[in-house]
């Protein structure tokens, strides 16, 4: 279920006459094989793919997100290298989901996330459907120190708090997380940004309220109350010790992100999103992140992949 990288997705132009000053991401990213001993990460970012859309299929969405990780890598490859001195990028391969074995793939993903964290890397997961989130959490949970409070910030048009009956899917990960935390006697700190009222039933809003989840709708985020939203984010961050940040690309307007499992016509503009992301990253509490739901099959002119890659560029630059 784990496939080490051979770096074939990392390719792009080279500017040989410019030497070291002309390097791009595909030239500087280094491969680590998580099936063998790996060096210390030194606080650097490691990309790990989750090639899975079984959860999307179960959730009756548009399948194709399993090809998302490679599409994001290809979009990141030509980026000019402006990393701070000493910073490095690492490619950690993919966890795959053969034969619709979602639950086993999520467990495997958790193990790889835990390994990266223990070795001192900053995992940045490339989805894959939003079922990525539960596997991601499994790895974070085992890494956290006793008593540390985890906060989850999810940029998403949907709560993803659906019932796990008859089976888990891309619509259930955060309810699964809430249930796991409840069993362990731990609080569920969940903040969802970009919610679309028309995309979430009354039951989902009720579930969010019962779990004590916080949220801001997409329409509110697009209003003029920017300082109010930043204050809400700061207040949430102050309550927790570590942050897991998940970005579902369907939070963005379909004009920017047509290639997702569930497009959103009136979603966020990237310019609305970036100040919020910077506020979160500046907290110094972000432990791990993912970008999910890229579906290359429906991605006109690779717009969604380019958006995902550009967001990741900003994340890598600001994640300290």
Automatic annotation (TrEMBL):
Domain of life: Bacteria
GO molecular function: agmatinase activity; formimidoylglutamase activity; manganese ion binding
UniProtKB keywords: Histidine metabolism, Hydrolase, Manganese, Metal-binding
Catalytic activity annotation: N-formimidoyl-L-glutamate + H2O = formamide + L-glutamate
UniProt cofactor(s): Mn(2+)
Matches recorded under Pfam families: Arginase
Function statement: Catalyzes the conversion of N-formimidoyl-L-glutamate to L-glutamate and formamide.
Protein's UniProt name: Formimidoylglutamase
Organism: Rufibacter latericius
């Amino acid at each position: 279920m784990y496939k080490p990288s051979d770096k074939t997705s990392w390719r792009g132009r080279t500017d040989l006459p410019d030497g070291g000053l002309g390097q791009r991401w595909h030239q500087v990213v280094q491969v680590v094989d998580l099936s063998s001993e790996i060096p210390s990460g030194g606080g650097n970012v490691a990309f790990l793919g989750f090639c899975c859309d079984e959860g999307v299929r179960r959730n009756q969405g548009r399948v194709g997100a399993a090809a998302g990780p490679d599409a994001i890598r290809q979009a990141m490859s030509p980026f000019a290298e402006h990393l701070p001195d000493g910073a490095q990028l690492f490619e950690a391969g993919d966890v795959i989901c053969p034969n619709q074995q979602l639950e086993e793939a999520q467990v495997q993903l958790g193990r790889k996330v835990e390994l990266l964290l223990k070795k001192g890397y900053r995992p940045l997961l490339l989805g894959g459907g939003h079922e990525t989130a539960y596997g991601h959490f499994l790895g974070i949970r085992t890494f956290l120190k006793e008593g540390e409070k985890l906060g989850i910030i999810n940029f998403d048009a949907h709560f993803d708090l659906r019932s796990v009956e008859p089976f888990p899917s891309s619509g259930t990960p955060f309810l699964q997380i809430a249930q796991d935390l409840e069993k362990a006697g731990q609080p569920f700190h969940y903040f969802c940004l970009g919610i679309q009222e028309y995309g979430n039933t009354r039951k989902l809003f009720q579930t969010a309220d019962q779990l004590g989840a916080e949220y801001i709708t997409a329409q509110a985020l697009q209003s003029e109350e920017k300082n109010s939203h930043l204050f809400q984010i700061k207040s949430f961050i102050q309550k927790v010790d570590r942050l897991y940040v998940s970005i579902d690309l369907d939070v963005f307007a379909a004009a920017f992100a047509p290639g997702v499992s569930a497009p959103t016509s009136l979603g966020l503009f990237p310019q609305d999103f970036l100040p919020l992301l910077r506020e979160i990253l500046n907290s110094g509490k972000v432990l791990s992140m993912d970008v999910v739901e890229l579906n290359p099959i429906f991605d006109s002119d690779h717009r969604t992949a380019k958006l995902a890659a550009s967001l990741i560029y900003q994340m890598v630059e600001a994640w300290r």
